[in-house]
Every structure is written in structure tokens, then in C-alpha cells.
Amino acid sequence: MEKFTNLTGVAAPMPLVNIDTDMIIPKQFLKTVQRTGLGKNLFDEMRYDDQGNEIADFVLNQPAYRQAQILVTGENFGCGSSREHAPWALADFGIRAIIAPSYADIFYNNCFKNGMLPIVLPQDQVDVLMEDARKGENARIAIDLESQTVTSADGQVFAFQIDPFTKHCLLNGLDDVGLTLEKVSAIDAFENAAAQARPWI
Amino acid sequence: MPKTLYDKIWDAHVVHEDSDGTCLLYIDRHLVHEVTSPQAFEGLRLAGRTVRAPAKTIAVPDHNVPTTPDRNDGIKNPESRIQVETLDRNAQEFGVNYYPVHDVRQGIVHIVGPEQGWTLPGMTVVCGDSHTATHGAFGALAHGIGTSEVEHVLATQTLIQKKSRNMKVEITGSLPPGVTAKDITLSVIGATGTAGGTGHVIEYCGQAIEELSMEGRMTVCNMAIEGGARAGLIAPDQKTFDYVKGRPHAPKGAQWDAALAWWKTLKSDEGAQWDKVVTLKAEEIAPVVTWGTSPEDVLPITGHVPDPDSFSGGKVGAARRALDYMGLKPGQKLTDIEIDTVFIGSCTNGRIEDLRAAADILKGRKIAVKRAMVVPGSGLVRAQAEEEGLAQIFIDAGFEWRLAGCSMCLAMNPDQLAPGERCAATSNRNFEGRQGRGGRTHLMSPAMAAAAAITGRLTDIRELTRQPA
Hints:
The complex is a heterodimer. Chain A is an alpha/beta fold.
């Protein structure tokens, strides 16, 4: 997994609440058997018209945001389907971090498995960063995972919380499966005990 | 210390706990479908790993499969075909339990699991699908996971988890006539919002929940995710045990007795601590429909389309956008909204009881919409509905009688809405584009969808319900 340490970049503003995973990557693009290549269809139905032409005023079609690495958005981002295609599409487009007041549970977890950082901040701080995002290249946002801070373009520093184990994995790019397989003897022991206690399983 | 049902199931599955509370949780059942698994199997292959517990892994294609009879000649859409063929290959190569497209037991993964007795009380059940919450109806801890986690479970039969908080949703009293499990679950989301359950596992309880059938309980738990919860749970009782007994993969003989003894302990203790409690009175729940593009946009069928300015914060803009997308105006009576299409099916409402409820309304009547389809949740539900004469009622009314699959719930197969097409649907999501680009979805119960099919508009089921002879 790709490490996440720090990032300074342009943020794209998407001030909508309840952006669901069907919006992030519509189902017709879930037919792939690969993880890559979904970036061009990120937010497909908001980004392109019926003929596949770009809709000029959609944020990611604007010149200032074509290289955006951060998304600033509204509460409950990523609700709906469990599709990991949503973080895959965001990452493939180039988004490595998201800033929002809240996320849906499964999406939030899926981000960390892909070296992405979903940051939770209170609405008033998100509002400040949303204003920065609206200024595009003129107001870059800085994120530092080690110190757990987001710094606005004018130097306001906002601290965020993250689970220590998740942070450790993200900073070091650790693979969950590899880590868990180090505990294989504990799994064996559990399985043997469970086979005695609940043999019908 | 008194424990909740969630606490008990959790505690019985912890393999290892780190000092910061991060746990390795053992997974009893892993359900797999074709859309969220190819990259996970590929990951195993690349790392030279195997499936740790193939006997506890159950795969079935459901999202992409066409529901028309010609599917037996092969899937026409090349990408869908590749995805289903990839699952065929992976199931064989890794030796997991499998119900291929032509198997009569094939169906929506969340209908097949309980039907085959894979889902049992007290289990941990996961699937790369958010509606895994359905299995919570059995008192199993069941939730959706992403593809990376699918790979993790395949390789290790565990998940890295932190415990969620406990939330109790109590529905007191008995449901009035015409009000169903779907109305309960939508009303709960209406009351708490789509993020109301975030960070929590919900236990649904109370007289109205106890009075529901297993099918109804599955409908309620299915949409726990739409309320943002990690999982929904209902304590198992005699109805649960009766439903499970005799199913192909349910325990038998002495194992049944041992299982039953444990299952009977699976309920929240008196005095258990809840982080959040929501109580609704069943008598106050009405048949409901959604008007917008979020499952929280729900109102009694007697209501009117709301004014976006009646909301606050980010919801004002969201409601404005929703009304624009849905082609509705504030103040419009919900019962004046005309419907083009009716879809009855999905993991929320594709079980036999759902088809019975819809057929009961449709018997001897004709549809007044452009098209209507019934997609049974599994091949076995379809066969039973045919045996009970329900299929003929649907066909006589003008419905298309389809083969099993997810179908128009998420429209990955050819069953899709056209732009602007308005659908009364028994599924679980009314998101923009969910049932097809530009399609407009109103969620409701099977009986309400059948009523809309007959009148051609959103309809209060209580106006149509047959009087006893």
C-alpha cells in the first residue's frame, strides 16, 4: 500500500451533503475486474452529459481543479454501497485526502486500505477550508499526518483525530493481510476452541 | 456486567485485542458476489495465498445477471459476462461453496444465505455488499466490507475491527393495518437521518419487531445501513429457530440442540448500557414513500412534497437539488405523483412474503403503468411463488415475471430506468441515477408498489385494501 505522510495541494470544493458512492462511481463502472483506471469516470454522471461531453461547470472539469489532490465536502460523504471502487476512483483521479464533517462507515474504512486519508473536522473548520478550496491554486491546503494537522492557506492550523493503529499503517504503508498473518497461531487457536464450543459453525 | 446482544456476539469472536482496542474478529460466514470480489481473489493469487476457510465461504453471482429467460444462453453484455465468468473460475479454483447462474438456488446473496441455512444466530457474517446487514435479522452480527477487506477475510477468516457503539431502536405497540416492515425501517431512517446510526450497531426491539415474520425482520435490518449503522440486529426467538430448522446448512441432531441452547442466550441483558436510544410508536407509523434522493427523504403517503427552505444547513441545498432531479414541486400531494414503472424485488423486499403481499393487492386487477416487473430474490422464491399461484396473478395483472437477481435495484444488468422515468420501487436506495441515469425512484413497501401499479400514481394502500368478505 502507498504510504501517506503529508500533502500540500489544491483542494476541490464540493459543498454537498450525503454524496453517495453511486455518485462517486456509478454502477456501470463496477464491471471491471481491476482496481485501476476508474479515475476518468469519477463522479461520471455529474461530470459528463449524456453524450459523454464534459459539463463545464462541474468542479473537476474546471482548469483549477483538474489536478486537485484534496476534496473538501459535506457531511456523510461516501454513504450507500460498500463499493471500494469509490476510493479507487478518487485515488485514480489523484485525490489522496478528503476533508468533511463526517463519513459513512464503510467508505471511511475503505479509504485507509488504499493509502488515502479521510479527515474529520467540525463544520466551521470545514467551512474555512471550503473557502480556501474555492480559491483553487491561490489557496493550497497542507495536511500532515504525523502531527495530525490541516493548515489553511492563511496559516490556521486545525488538529484532527485518527485511530493510532490506522495512522501507523498509513504512515508506513503497511499491508493488513501481512500484519494479520503474523497472528496466524492466534487464529488457529481461536478456530480450534470455536470448533469445540460451537461445532455447528 | 450486563451485556447487549452485540456485546455478546462480539466477545465470542475476538481472536486478539490490542491495547488500543483494535481487535481481530473471527468471521463465521463470508458471502461473496461477482462485483466486489475479482480484485480480492486476484490479490490472493498475486501473493500466492489461499482461501483459509473455503467451507465457510459462499459465492453467488447476483448483481450483473440478466433476469430474462435468455440468460441461460449466456450473458450478452461482455463486461458483465467477464465478471460472472471470473467468479465461476475463482469459486472453482479456490474451492468455495458456489451457486452458479443456472442453479435453481441462485439468487441475491442476502436471500440465498438465510434460505440455505448458512446464516445462523450468533454468527459473524460479512460480504462485500452494504446490505449484508440483512442477516442481522437472525441475531447475527452482519455487515458490509470493501474489497480489500474481502481479500483480508479470504486470506485470514478475520477482520481488523474496532467495536461500534450500542444503539437501541424500539418500536412499541402493534403496526396498524397496511403498515409493514418496510414502513418501519424507512420511518426509522426518516426519524434519525442517513447518518443517525453512524458508528453504531442497532438492535431493533419492541412488540412490533417481535410480531414481524423473519422476512419482515430481514427487511428492517437490511436498511440499517441506510441509517448509517454498521449493522442491525434482532434477538433470535422461536420464529428465528423455526425458520432456521431443517434448512440445508442448519445444524442437525445433537448439534441442533447444542446450538439452540446457545442461541437462547443471545439477547440483551436487563440493564445493558445503550449509547443511543430511539423509540417509535408502531401506532404512529403510516405507509410511507420517499420523495427525494436520500432514504431519509421519507414521508407518510398522506403528506406533501416539502419545501427545501423548511430544512436547515446543508440539507436545504440537497433538498432543492433532489426536487429538481425528481421533477417535483414543493406542496404537491404525494398521491398526485404519477408513476411510469413498478419494480418489486431486491434483497430488501424480494422474499416470498413480499410477493404474497403484492399479489394480494394485484389479484383480479390490471396495471395502469407503462411497465411493471417482479424479480424474485432467488430461484427458490420464484419456484414457490409459481407453486402458490402468485406468478399467475402477477402475469395476469400485466407484470413481467423475471428470474432471480439484484436487477433494477442497482441496474447493473439490463433492467434500468430511462432518464426521467419514474419508478415505484421496493428496493433500498433512491440515489440519483441508482436505477439508471436520470431515473426517479420512490421507495415503498411491496403492497404500496402494487397499489401504485394499479392506480398509476403513488397510492395509500389503506384506500385499496380489500375488505374481508
